[in-house]
Amino acid sequence: MTKTIGLHPVENVAGPKTIYQRTSETKPYVSRYKRPDTVSHSSWNWELISDQPLDQWLPDLEEIKTTYPDRMLIASIMAGAGNEEEMENWRRLARAVVNAGCDAIELNMSCPHMDRKDMGAHIANDEDIIRSILQAVTEVVSVPIWVKLTPSASSLVDGARAAYAAGASSISLCNTFPSLPLMDPETLKFEVEVDGLVTSGGLGGLAILHQALQRVSDVSRAFPDKSISGIGGIKGFREAFNFIAHGAGNLQVCTAAMEEKGSGGVGVNLIQELTSDLGEYLERKGYSSIEEFRGVARERIVEHSRIRRKSEAYNGGYAQPA
Ligand SMILES: Cc1cc2nc3c(=O)[nH]c(=O)nc-3n(C[C@H](O)[C@H](O)[C@H](O)COP(=O)(O)O)c2cc1C
What we know:
The protein is an alpha/beta fold. The protein has one domain: TIM Barrel (Alpha-Beta Barrel), CATH 3.20.20.70. About 30% of the residues lie in helices and about 15% in strands. It is built from eight helices and eleven strands. The strands form two sheets. The chain has a seven-stranded parallel β-sheet. Strands 2-3-9-8 form a four-stranded antiparallel β-sheet, with no helix packed on it. The longest helix has 18 residues, at about 270-285. It is globular and about 65 Å long. The site of flavin mononucleotide has 26 residues, from strand 3 and helix 7.
């Protein structure tokens, strides 16, 4: 999966775009600043989509596909909404990345910090827009189309329904959660800021795992026969297992892979460990594939009132009928 590729002008903030926050057992506060014996807590970023133009991406995509012809290459793309010109931008991006060899496309309807109101997470509550973009893209390419939705949409399940009905073969969940960086009590500076100012950015990594699972579960229980790509807080096998148990059929990793930078490639060790731990688990349990336990958690997520109480007198918060 690529970084999101677009056609509109992109200029990132004049400072760090991403920070990696850590916490420790002895002083369990969260901070980006280096301390001994800390473990990863989350990433926080306010990076926009790729600032590299489409023409620069295309030869790279071609080279990746030629070098690894038997591997899936998926391009994430984004344009605006609300008029024919923007629909044409989606079509142009889709055609270009498929001609360059991409096997599937992910439509980014989820970036939480776009300035433009017709882009990213801003459009995820509008089912008409979701439908119109899918219609534009499916007109011009025949590869599978995934739609990445935002966890902050109040109508996530409705958005997923609109996307599946309009031809999405999979929904990706989640993008990062809208959030603010922390302020240092001594200096009164945010841990990331430009000229003393910050704006809403996105939280990723372990800190969002449980919330991402909830979103996957919501969509998976509503559409148990449809595909979901799970993302949000995956580092090792246990997190991956949980996404699969809630119904995800494939997984993506961002923060944990980026944290591993410098170890011979972004996320190489992590992926090797993840696949070998998964293989070992399948063998130990006698499963032939993840399909044997995918969605196993679905039926066990119920309304609060269905959870047993110690007494039988409780009536869901209402007085017992006389
Ligand atoms: C620095 C950074 C850049 C990101 N850029 C994109 C992007 O271009 N397109 C996109 O769909 N998601 C983007 N994301 C979101 C991730 O793909 C992912 O959905 C999110 O970080 C949650 O997964 P994680 O907990 O594994 O990081 C970005 C995340 C980070 C940390």
